[in-house]
């Protein structure tokens, strides 16, 4: 059995969910979902990201039993127990199946690494710290103040 996420992990996840959902809902842009939810890429490629965003025009990939296809944006909150899976295995899957934006959030280091899909490969957009405000590439006009995320 996998242990439950730490309280720090849960706080960061909740803060991100609130910021993103408030903006997405008020602008009718799509849906966000959070763990546990299956993202199914194929019969053997099923993952449960911490947070996903699916744009309004792509909501057909959302079914009763999960998300069948690539979300537009995936956020993984990285802990020492999940870092190898989140950083390598899941990142490779997200890249291969076309997730446009991938965030790796490190609660203990209070930083976020952002990768954007360009030409079928992830390019590191940058590493952002607690004092930064971060513009979301897949959601126009959504800026995430990382101070709010890590508080």
From TrEMBL:
CDD domains recorded: DUF820-like (cd06260)
InterPro entries in the cross-refs: Nuclease_put_TT1808, Restrct_endonuc-II-like, Uma2
Sequence ranges assigned to domain Putative restriction endonuclease in this UniProt record: 1-145
UniProt-listed SUPFAM superfamilies: Restriction endonuclease-like
Entry protein name: Putative restriction endonuclease domain-containing protein
Species: marine sediment metagenome
